[in-house]
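Might you be able to check the backbone structure tokens below? Thank you kindly.
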Amino acid sequence: MRVEVGDPVALKDGEGAVRLIDYRVDPTGRTVLLAAREDRTVLVNTVRTIVPLGGGTPRTRLSSSSFRLESERLPDWAFVTSDGTHALLLTRDGTLTRYSRGDDGFALAEIVDATPGDAEVTAANMHFGGKTLLVGDAGGDVSAWHVAVFEDESSGDSGLQRLTMAHTFSGGGGAVLDLTPSVRDRSIVVLTEGGEVRVRHVTSEKIAADFETGLADAYAARLTPKNDGIFAIGADGRYLIREFEPGYPEFSFKALFGKVHYEGQLEPSFVYQSSSGDDSSEIKLSIVPLIFGSLKATIFAMLFAVPVGVLAAVYTSEFLSHRVRRLVKPGVEMMASLPSVVLGFVAAIIIAPFARQWLPSVLIGFATIPFSVLVMAHVWQLVPESLRKRMRSGQHLAMVLAACFLGVTLAVLMGPGFERLLFAPPEGLAEGVPVDMRRWLAGEYGPAWPGWFVVLTGPVAIAVAFLQSVFVSRRIDRLLAHKSRGFISAVIFARFFAMLAIIGGVSIALAFLLQAMGFDPRDSIFGPFSPRNTLVVAMIMGFAVIPIIYTISEDSLRAVPDSLRAASLGSGATPWQTAVRIVIPVAGSGIFSACMIGFGRAVGETMIVLMATGNTPEMSWNIFGGFRTLAANIAVELPEAPKGETHYRVLFLCGLVLFLMTFVINTCAEIVRQVVRARTAGL
């Protein structure tokens, strides 16, 4: 074996002997050296060796920085982080002092107590990667400290740093004598008084091995390079080599389903990050963001697909003629034959850029299209009855499609004005700032109430319509019992616009109330805009789920006996009243099953999610942000996962969780369907 010794590094600052020394080598080959001298001067030197590309003698570059300790004595341990920006000084009484490098060199940043109570520090070491400090005390406890980066919400300052205790656990019985990290992963070996050795993975806090060495005077223990054995040595020269099977120390229930305090973070969080830039980075395998992403995609897709699919089935079953239905139903069912990869391609190439360019028009379209259909329905009441009877079912469908086209046209025309009205920069902002809703979503300017108004309009409209049908509709019907048809149509038209005014007023009032209470939708359902976002996935995945919901719902509605329809119509009910109060309740179990089958289809969708989102495992309800689902994660990472390793097994666990989700949902749906069928069996 040949060992190459570099040039010696002369310490220019300070006087006296070097009492403490520590060094780190980062993945780029840079060496960071810390030395504490007898006069309390601490030097941090960065050494980089440069090898010329054309050959020649390697050159060593040295950059040095020094500072003087403010305490009266030297610490017992001194460490430097691998990036050379923090010097950590520790004394036996548990005082941990951090000096941080700034523009003017190193300066005192903070002083914390590294041990609980009055426990004395007996061992300390830097963890694998050189960013986490491990501290063992006389009580047998081990704690892990790192410098966390955070933002002060009160002042808005970002990039602040603070020492944080990320993990604490018992090292065994008695005082900690030795604390050594693995050179392979985030495991450590802890040696305590009495010769007990415990191997633990710090991130997952899982114990990989725990046994007695039999060496009463053992003072050092090390892990073998492959983490499959332990070497311990005693003061009398006796030693022990013991092999063990480490298994999968990164794999634990807490690491997979609980919040974990990762290096560099202020608080524990759910993070999934299966790969990193270097071996020293922590592996993050929490599948909670993947479960959240699957549910998020499914919920928003169902919000789009269920109303369209069920109402289309009701319209086809109860109001279209048999001749038109023979054309419409096969056409809708043909939508189910489109491959997911084609839909994902359309979403990524066409819909996502369109939604980015016409975002205000897309949002207002969710209001203008139903509004146009409802206005057309009220106008239809003003058409003479003789003319209405001459029109066929196909002409009715054409009128509905024309109303939808009118709604799309209104959305395109009103979108820019809608954006300027609600999301324009406030007065006093620099002139020339363009009106862009995406900047409002990013929180660059603007109050919160416009966002709440957009969010609340739909729920308020549903609530107003329900209250009107329960408390107002029947009273108006009794008052109009003997009035002319024209007068009745005019009153219904006026009621419709009165409801619109109430919806707008209540939505604005609630929006201002939520803003006054300090709530901002940009912290929840809204947020920074990403071109490939949840809204795009919801629309295109809803398009894929609609045929399933429509077909099964329509079959369930057609299975309702015609005798029930005839009895209802013979009692004086209108076709709409018959559909809502007789047909839909009887077919409720079938409609519910259709929705649950569509739910299962959306949960397992892969290619649409993979192509139409950023595929980022986020924990946010932001409809304009991305996400990653369980199915998409398996499709992306399984081909590259090393067989038999922890990552490989986690991907199979993702598949098992996906199966359990669909199994539980379908089981609950079947129970509910049986209950609904039992209640409607008497009909």
Observations:
- The chain has a mean pLDDT of 86.
- The longest helix spans residues 646-680.
